[in-house]
Amino acid sequence: MKITLCGSMAFAKEMIIARQEIEKRGHTVFIPEGTEEYANGRVDKNNMGGSEGAQRKMANDLIRKHCQLIAHSDAILVLNYEKKGVENYIGGNSFLEIGYAHIVGKKIFLMNEIPDIELIQQEIEAVRPMIINGDLNLIR
Q1: Residue 83: Cβ-neighbour burial (10 angstroms; 0-12, 13-18, 19+)
Q2: Stated pTM of the model
């Protein structure tokens, strides 16, 4: 199976680990462009937000590129861990990617439960993701 990982770049190190573990199970894994740079500290995570983050996404066409990875995959896995006090955090990009994956008919896996974020909770429930609670063996 081909799987594209989604999630906040705050989880870049976790994405690298998840990719390795999923590949051990025989899957092909795609990660967002720049994940290694974030994981290795070559990109300042403090400059990810606001206009600087938006400029980087636009200059490198990152949203479109990641959606192209999703289109060529069988499924997505959203890494949703605690971030800034929000349990099972799913941000704007990941929410967009979940919606895109749903529209193009891909399986949607969440690493953890759907977050208690009123603006997106019902919509995420409506796409019927499979919540794996950290068990990568459930990806099939």
Answers
A1: middle
A2: 0.90
Q: Enumerate domains of the chain plus CATH numbers.
A: 2-138 (3.40.50)
Q: Say if residues 112 and 134 touch (Cβ distance below 8 Å).
A: yes
pLDDT average, residue stretch 31-56: 73
The residues, ordered by sequence, that sit 6+ positions from 4 with a Cβ below 8 Å of its Cβ are 29, 30, 31, 66, 69, 70, 73, 75, 76, 77
**Running DSSP on this structure, what letter comes out for residue 33?**
T
Instruction: Give the HSE-up count for residue 104: Cα atoms under 13 Å, Cβ half-sphere.
Output: 16
Closest by Cα among 128, 125, 127 to 103? 127
Could you count the other beta carbons within 10 Å of the beta carbon of residue 131? 17
